[in-house]
Amino acid sequence: MALAQVSSNKCSGGYQKVFEHDSTELKCKMKVAVYLPPKAENEKCPVFYWLSGLTCTEQNFITKAGSQQAASEHGIIIVAPDTSPRGCNIEGEDESWDFGTGAGFYVNATQDPWKTNYCMYTYVTEELPRLINANFPADPEKMSISGHSMGGHGALICALKNPGKYKAVSAFAPICNPIQCAWGQKAFSGYLGEDKKTWEAYDATVLAASYSGPQLDILIDQGRDDQFLSASQLLPDNLIAACSEKKIPVVFRLQPYCSLLPTGHVVQRLSDAAV
Q1: Partners of 17 in beta bridges
Q2: What is the distance between the alpha carbons of residues 42 and 161, in angstroms, rounded to a whole number?
Q3: How are beta strands 28-36 and 14-23 bridged, if at all?
Q4: Domain regions of the chain by residue span
Q5: Which family is it part of (predicted)?
Q6: Which pLDDT tens digit goes with each residue over 77-119?
Q7: Claim: this prediction has a pTM higher than 0.85
Q8: How is the beta sheet containing 169-172 ordered, strand by strand?
């Protein structure tokens, strides 16, 4: 699968690059950011997949999180894809910030007109790893996944639906129980239809309640003053309760900030990914 380099910048001893490719799953051109640490020049490296939140692109994480220094130190490749298909000329795709463009919700849509392009779940879990493994010195046995808000939701469901695929999973201010919040209900009804039973396949709280795979350690950082926490959009307590019932270890850290991505969270998960 051909990758076209869009940009390349020296960063923390390695290279921060952005590529474009024709996605077979999404049937459009997609951009993906890839950080290559110095270690990648000589040997295979673990891969840390980062899923961004609503309205974001592949640029948000690589310009705001400061993750390249930690990735350089631990010898980890960072992969940050876009958050949705773009330029598909679907009626209504640009009408709201929380549905359509920039809001793919990491599901495989089953409803017209979205089902042709909006298959972000398969893109993230299958097509993108194949692309990365084929074009970079990536260790396919050492993948981890994390994300913020909608992307935190994405990271959690990818790990819960694929037991053993990821060495570590974490999330910052994730949407933990989308079938019970306004964001999730809007997205799921549009992408998946009105049968709420089908929504459960993409809800971390529901998936945790039925999880039967190998031990999965989950780390969640949440800002205490996050307006979306108080607005019941994130619902971390529901996920924690489900994990407790299934004895899935969860480290939940309530932080004194609102919604800025903590560098410490990224460093810790990059370190976990290197194991």
Answers
A1: 8, 34
A2: 33
A3: antiparallel
A4: 4-274
A5: Belongs to the esterase D family.
A6: 999 999 999 999 999 999 999 999 999 999 999 999 999 999 9
A7: yes
A8: 4-11, 14-23, 28-36, 77-81, 45-51, 138-147, 169-172, 218-223, 250-255
